[in-house]
Amino acid sequence: MDRTEGTGFPAGRERALATLSGWLADPDDRAVVVTGAPGTGKTTLLAWLVGLTDPEWRAMHAALPAPPPENAFHAVVAARGGCVETIAWSLARQLGHPYRGPRAFLQELAADERPAVLMISELDQVGLPWDRDAETERVAREFLAPLAELEHVRLLLDGSATIAAALGDRAGVVDLDSPEFTDRAAFTAWAGAAVGASTGKGADDPQVAVAAEAIARAAYPNFLLAELLAADLAVTGEVGADAGDVRARLRTVLDRYLASRTPAAPRARDVLGALAFADPAGVPLQAWPTLVAAVTGRPCSAEDVETTLRHAGDLVAVSAETGWYRLRHHSFAEELAGRRDAAEVCRRLVDAFRVPASDAAGYARRALPGYAATAGQLPELLADPAFLVDADPGRLQAALARAHPAGPVRHAWDQGADQLLSDRRESRAAQLSLTARCQGAHDLADGIAALQDLPWTVRWARWLPRGATQSPPGWPGRVQGLAVVDDGSGPVAVCGNTAGRLHRLDLASGDPAGPPVRTHVPEVLRLAAWAHGGRVLAAVMGPNPPLELWDLTNGEALGGLAGLPWYGVSGGFLKGEPVLALGAPSGVVHLWNPVDMTLRGQLVTGEDGTVVALAFTGAGTTLAATNSGGNLYAWDVESGRLAARPGAHHGIARSVAVGMAGGVPVVVSGGSDGTVQVWNLDTGELSPAPSRHLAYVSATAVATVAGQGVAASASRDGLVRLWRLADGDEPGVFTVGHQVHAMALCADGALLLGTARGVLVVDCRPALG
Fold first, then answer.
1. Secondary structure element (H or E) that encloses residue 657, with its range
2. Are 195 and 208 in contact (CB under 8 A)?
3. 121 in the same domain as 47
4. In 3D, which of 35, 129, 639 has the Cα closest to residue 370?
5. Residue 640: exposed, middle, or buried by beta-carbon count in 10 A (0-12, 13-18, 19+)?
6. Distances (CA, A) of 432 to 399, 405, 414
7. Which of 177, 362, 456, 584 is most buried as measured by Cβ atoms within 10 A of its Cβ?
8. What mean pLDDT comes out for the span 181-193?
């Protein structure tokens, strides 16, 4: 929404501005809907309201009375051409929430009790012009009504009676059709200026005053109708509008206007009528003749378009941002579309733009998803990897929501929607390839890989696809604990799941490296693993003591450790022997020999906070820890020497990793505040990661890959970030769509992720160069 839309503040609307400013200043008023007939200037009024909350903007318009409070809105969304999903995604991004679909966003917002003032405008322009009523009803029912139930959220909306009805008595109404919100004298003066602009006559011309009064009688308080009457007056010399509601009068004046232009622009109705089927953002000049030919079934030349613009350009608006052309007002579309069958027209438009000319490629990317959804051809286009990667992500999301095509491709899109709606093409292609592998859409993933080189790829995924009725072969379950060991035949991933089972998977192929082992814990929350003496050992913790020790080579239980409720757990080696570190609520770390379960020593933080996470270096010489107070610790295991960084995180520090990164020992930790910290153990310097997460950080990893220090972090919302420690560059940001409980980064660039839907390995080498 462009706050500078129009030539100035809407004449006579000071009362409406004061009413909305008063609403913003009163925290007890929960919601208000600005309504009015088409052309009353709802969007323009709200654009000015938003602009005036900006201190710099309001300083430029200090003469306006009753300005709103400064910086009053936490989020502002223009809904034109959008849907429930795109509106929710935009709000989530602005409010700092992860996005995993509208319902999940509403739940996130409900749990976040901070006050939020939201404005959503252009709600009478959601969806596509020929399917607007259905989309408006869906937005109102599925999103706005539950949003209005949240007591800490205040809403300012503009739209139709459908929007006001959905909120009922939870919202007040500012009806711009009501005379109380538009000063009649100011409106008449504005009409006189419009007459002068159309006819070239001065403001002191008596005929201008007479015409202005006539237009005010016919149009007040509708600015669009008044503008059309003034433009028509310049050609016909008359001010005419039949009685009836505003829509009927607009239709009459529009017909008169076009009839008066037909002699000079015989194709005007065709050329303008085609804009009723343009993308809501408009159409570029080069693609306009193609649009007209497809809609009307008759050829159209660039000259036809230019002639129409010259003689009937009053009905057209040009985007200052893109230079694309659209109808001046969305209400024109219904009249100009005629009685054409939308599905048939859209079938012709799909044919016209499916293989577009080079100068129409940008328009095709944006408009083709909507045309295909209306024509019933979206499933056919979804089979084309190039279409999925090239299509405008917001328009494709809206088309998917409208057409409801079930199947792996739709599931892959939904799983990665947060990143697919925002990333550049290269990252979007890699993201879609990743989620396609997870959902079993391997043809799509292969097709995307054939289009271009990808910055990261999925080496393998053992994943439970959405809608699966049974577990796929080799699925390790919902993985919460994870470790990597080398059993002599190569690296093996040890995965612990919510059913209390341990699975071993070959890190190269994802194939089982042995039969699963059923432990005695109801679910594996954390684990540590070692390859030692020809055996693979694992220590597992469930919701309650005791900790259990298992030989995964033969499935034998080796005992347990009762007593304290253990929290952090990590496995390493010290002088060639395996060592198990366990964190206790007292701030003490106990070191055990997992072979004979004898205590080898204790490391003390010196503080009372619970030790939440632990991590050994590969050599076992350093142990890092975090605690419930957000502090970091690192010990030299042999000497017991402690280094500490208190207050590294606000709240609980939930995850930690330690290792050599490019020859430098570093600790990488993640907190419940979404921050990731990098602690250089040589210099003691603590520095934040280049970006923070929107949810708590549930896993971190660090390694040397291709000679460079690399770190990774993942959060509860499934977002994964990969960055170089030397320069902070982030070559990889993607989502797996579900919480990442554990992760490991290997020297060959393999990033192993354990999630609520299974486990996968992402090959990050291309991104790291």
1. strand 653-661
2. yes
3. yes
4. 129
5. exposed
6. 17, 17, 10
7. 456
8. 93
Of 181, 214, 238, the last residue of a domain is: 181
Helix (H, G, I), strand (E, B) or coil at 445: helix
Q: How far apart, in whole angstroms, are the C-alpha atoms of residue 110 and residue 151?
A: 9
Q: Is the pLDDT of residue 138 over 90?
A: yes
Rounded mean pLDDT of 65-89? Answer: 94
At residue 505, the pLDDT reads 96
Query: For position 143, which CATH number holds?
Result: 3.40.50
Indicate whether 4 pLDDT > 50: no
CA diameter of the chain: 106
Same domain flag for 222 and 86: no
pLDDT at res. 537: 96
Helical (H) or strand (E) element with 110: helix 102-111
The answer as to whether 208 is a domain residue is yes
pTM: 0.86
What pLDDT score was predicted for residue 243?
54
Q: What is the pLDDT of residues 566-576, one digit of tens each?
A: 788 999 988 88
Alpha helices in 285-441 (DSSP H): 288-296, 302-312, 332-336, 342-353, 361-375, 378-382, 385-390, 393-403, 408-415, 417-420, 425-438
Same domain, 55 and 35: yes
Residue 668 contacts by C-beta under 8 Å, 6 or more apart in sequence? Answer: 656, 657, 658, 676, 677, 678, 679, 689, 700, 701, 702, 711, 713
Structural domain containing residue 169: 14-181
Please give the Cα distance from 16 to 22 (Å, whole number).
10
What CA–CA distance (Å, rounded) separates 11 from 188?
9
494 closest CA partner among 502, 486, 259: 502
**241 and 137 in a common domain:** no
Runs of H (alpha helix) within 220-341:
223-236, 246-261, 268-274, 288-296, 302-312, 332-336
Q: Note whether 133 and 229 are same-domain residues.
A: no
| Residue 279 is assigned to a structural domain of this protein | no
Q: What is the pLDDT of residues 98-133, one digit of tens each?
A: 888 999 999 999 999 999 999 999 999 999 988 888
Instruction: Identify whether residues 34 and 124 lie together within a single domain.
Output: yes
Beta carbons of 626 and 654 less than 8 angstroms apart? yes
Q: What is the pLDDT of residues 379-429, one digit of tens each?
A: 999 999 999 999 999 999 999 988 877 889 999 999 998 888 876 888 899
Does residue 5 register a pLDDT over 70? no
Determine the pLDDT at residue 472: 85
Domain boundary residue, one of 212, 228, 259: 259
Arithmetic mean of pLDDT over the chain: 91
CATH number for the domain including 645?
2.130.10.10
**463-466-469-470 Cα dihedral, nearest 10 degrees:** 10
Same domain (yes/no): 210, 79:
no
Asked if residue 739 lies in contact with residue 482, where contact means CB atoms within 8 angstroms, the answer is no
Amino acid letter, residue 113: E
- Whose tokens are 């005992």? That residue is 559
Counted domains in the chain? 3
pLDDT at 237: 73
Which residues have CB under 8 Å from 494's CB, separation 6+? 482, 483, 484, 485, 502, 503, 504, 527, 529, 536, 538, 552
* Averaged pLDDT for residues 670-675: 93
Q: What is the residue type of 576? A: G
Residue among 677, 714, 710 nearest 696 (CA) = 714
Domain assignment present for 98: yes
Per-residue pLDDT for 1 more than 60?
no
- Contacts of 485 by beta carbon, 8 Å cutoff, 6+ apart: 491, 492, 494, 529, 530, 531, 536
Mark whether 110 and 241 lie in a shared domain. Answer: no
Give CA torsion, residues 277, 279, 280, 284, to 10 deg: -110
- For residue 408, tell me if it sits in a domain: no
Mean pLDDT throughout 652-671?
Answer: 91
**2: which 2 tokens?**
């462009």
CA nearest to 485, candidates 459, 513, 454:
513
